[in-house]
Structure formats: C-alpha cells, structure tokens
Amino acid sequence: MNKTILIIDDSGHIRDYFKDLFESAGFKTFQAAQAQEALKILESNQIDLITLDLYMPDIDGFELCKKIRQLERCKNIPVIMITGDESFETKAKAFENGVSEFFSKSKANEILVEYVQDLFTAADHQAQEVKGTVLLVDDSVLSRDVIKSLLSHEYMELITAQNGREALEIVRKQPVDLVLTDIEMPEMDGISLTKALRNYEEYKLLPVVIMSSLSEQSKVIHAFMSGANDYVQKPFQRDELVVRINAHLKMSLLQKTIQQKNRYLDELNQQKNQFINMAAHDLRNPLAGIVSAVDLLKEGGLGDLNESQKEIFSIIDNSAQNMIGLIKNLLDVNKIETGNFKIEKTDVNIADFFSKVKVMNALIAESKKIDLAVNLQVNQAKYQFDKDKILQVMNNLISNAVKFSEPENKVHVIVTERNGKLRVEVEDQAGGIPEDEQVLIFTKFAKISRRPTGNESSNGLGLAICKYIIEAHHGEIGFNSTPGQGSVFYFELKD
Q: Among 139, 380, 432, 470, which is most exposed with the fewest C-beta within 10 angstroms?
C-alpha cells in the first residue's frame, strides 16, 4: 500500500516503535518530534495520514492539529490522536480541533495498523462511489436548508427529520450510514436520540455527530457520554463539516466491512464445527470396533498369543485408545465453542468421589510404579458440582502428572477446604514447566518442550478443557511450577 504516514511524538522511543509498526506493514513514514518540524514536513511532502501525540514540549496536540487544518493541503488528511488521556473532555477538545480519530496508547499497538489499512482501503473504494446516506436531524427548516447547500456537491445522499422521534422511525425503515443531529429539538432532542440508538444492538456502531452552538458547549460532554462520536460547532465551516462527515462515513463503511467479514468467518466456523462433529462421530465407532477386536485377540479368543504378538496388539490398543481420547477432546472443544457444553451440578459425596478417582487412575500410575496418594482434609461430607465433568478434570490432571513423571516418582492429590471453597491440588515431581512456556499451559493445542517419559501421547487439549470446566463452575484453576523440581496444579470450587 503506497501511502505515507507522519508520526508526531516528542518521544524518540515511541516514534521508532510506530515507525517499525507502520513500515513493517508496507507504509512509508516521516517522523517529527516538535510542531514546527511537523509543519515543515507537511508543507514539502505528500502525507496521507498523521498520528499525533497530545502532550509535547512546544505546543500541545490540540493546537498543532488546529494549525495542520489551516494548511490547504491538509484539510482532509486523517489525523489520529494517540494518548493515554481517554477522558470525555479530552476527546471533545480533540474533535473540536480537527482530530479524525482517537486511540489510547494502551490499545494502539493491537489495532492501529489494521485500522489504518482498512481506512485507506475504504477511502480508495469511496473515491469511486457514493459515500453513504446521512440522516440530518434538525427542527429548523433554515438550518436543514443551509446544511443541504453546504453538502450539495458531495457524493452522499441526504435525508432529513425534524426531531429525534421522526429520525428513529426513518432509521428503522431504511439504511443510514451517519446521523447528523442538532441538540435542542422538540419531542426528542439529540442526546435522547443518541441514547435511544445505542439501546439497539444494530445501531451501536452507527456514527452520530452532534451539532451545537457555543451556548450549548456544556451539553457536548453529556452527548459524548450518551454515545455520540463527534460534534461540529455552529456556525459551520463547510470544509470542517465535510471532513468530519467523510471521516465518520469512512469509519461506518469500515465497520460494515468488518461485520461482513465476521459474519463470513462465523459461517466458516460453523461449517468447521459441523465437519469436526461429523468426522469425530464417524471415526469413533470404527475405533471402538478395533479396540473390541484387539481385546478379544489379547484374551485368546482366537488362540494363544506369543509375546511378540501380545506386544503388537498392545501397541494397536494404545494407539486406538489415544485416538478415541483425541476424538473425545475434539468433541468437547466443539461443544464448548458452539455453546452446547452444559454443567449439571448435584450433591457429591467427597470421600466416595475421590476414592473413585484413585481407583480409575491406579492402573496408569502402577504402569510406571508411581506412588499415587489421595489425602482428604475436609470436614464437609458433600459438595455441589458436576460429578462427571470434575472427574474428567481429575483424570486429566493426574494422567498429566503421571505422564511427565519418571518411574517411581510420587503424585499426590490433596483435598482441603479454604474460605468455604473446595480446593484440590495435584502435586508431582515431574521436573516442572520451563518459565517461558508456562503462559501456554491452558491454551488449546499447547505443546511444551518437555516430553512424556514413557512415550505417552499428548494432544494439547486436556488442560484447555479443564480450564473451561472449572470456569463454567465459577471456580478458579491454576498452577505453581518450579523448573527442575515439579508442579502443583490446583482448582477451587464454591459449594
């Protein structure tokens, strides 16, 4: 994208950061540390967009933006203010002095480049097409005629309403890309109109620009708090009015494009989920048949087996069981992502439950001579939770501990009560998790550098599912790990 961006900030570190950010996306950049330096660059170079800091040593960003707008070649250039001050007062003053868009420094790195790319794409697209439909809301016939005259040479459709109530009826009946509304009107004023629009999900992103006179400045902050995007001051300067409306129409087009893309991605995601669901079910039955056939052969159903044959059938059985486990996890993830993963709480006897946990995991522990112990330190006999789902969590945490432990290590389960909550800890001696990999532990398909000590399989879904199950119980899950020693995975449940 052959566009040039001017970065204005007195901090060299921030200028360099945004320079790398924009240039890695294919933009050309200029940099300025002070207002005079920026104005000289603008006078002698073709600039397509400006990013501007608020606080600078010579003049602030408000005053500099006003000076930029006084340059004939810069009247329509998008100016993005990037600052840590996100107050309504600051936003109002920024828009008053000609700022096109406002970003907080804390979020700019996440979305700024994508926003700028989409803004230029929308601008190129709109240069060839009608820019959109503007709904003008004003009870004064004279004001409506003046604004019609000011916008008569622009490529936009203009429709009018006399008050907020009439405007709402129009918005419900036909597509509108921007609302330009007066503040003081009978029946429903501009602030009430803005609040009403924001109450509807489909109008939450509809740009609303407030028109106000100097005597109404105290209401501008109220308008912003009600959901207005911008305001213009009466009497109008035509160029300023056009620039502001065009900037918000571009944003409106951008938002609609993003919404269309999101709907398309949602459709693809639904198709993906349907495919996973169908494929998993189609695979599970044949695998169950393989496991049953192997069990029959291992038990001598077709004659005695020698040691080599037993070993081969054990490999087939383990592989099939691993595939069945993967399919179960994929189906669980699919249920989570489609909102079909349900939690059904019942009263659970704690002693009976953890006795079952130990029995179910005894075999995998014994296969590696792991000392598996369960230590109950609870006074309350019963707790409420989804028995099957928490059993799934326990089996996953214990199997992971065993999987990454050396033979003859220890895995201890400690069950306690803390501040009215049931706390369960699974402690291992499996060498711990590298510090730089700990952030990945609860993410889907996470893989760490440490491998299972007995060549067991790991699909990277189990802990992500555990996290969802515990959080669906409104509980907390986490871990403490010491590299070179071991880890303690824990969760807490409210009764």
A: 380
Residues 211, 317 within the same domain: no
CATH number of the CATH domain containing 40: 3.40.50.2300
**pLDDT tens digits, one per residue of 188-203:** 999 999 999 999 988 9
Quick check: 494 pLDDT over 80?
Answer: yes
Distance CA(367)–CA(229), nearest Å, equals 65
* Residue scoring higher pLDDT (429 or 448): 429
Host domain of residue 188: 129-236
What is the Cα–Cα distance from 96 to 91, expressed in whole angstroms? 8
Total length of the chain: 495
- Tell whether 249 is covered by a domain: no
Domain count for the chain: 4
In a domain, 74, yes or no: yes
Of residues 173 and 265, more confidently modeled: 173
Is residue 161 located within the same domain as residue 194? yes
**244 falls within a domain:** no
Q: Would you say residue 1 has pLDDT above 70?
A: no
Rounded CA-CA distance 221/228 in Å is 9
**Whether 216 and 290 share a structural domain:** no
Spatial neighbors of 312 by CB under 8 A, at least 6 apart, are none
The rounded distance, in Å, linking the Cα atoms of 120 and 26 is 13
pTM of the model: 0.47
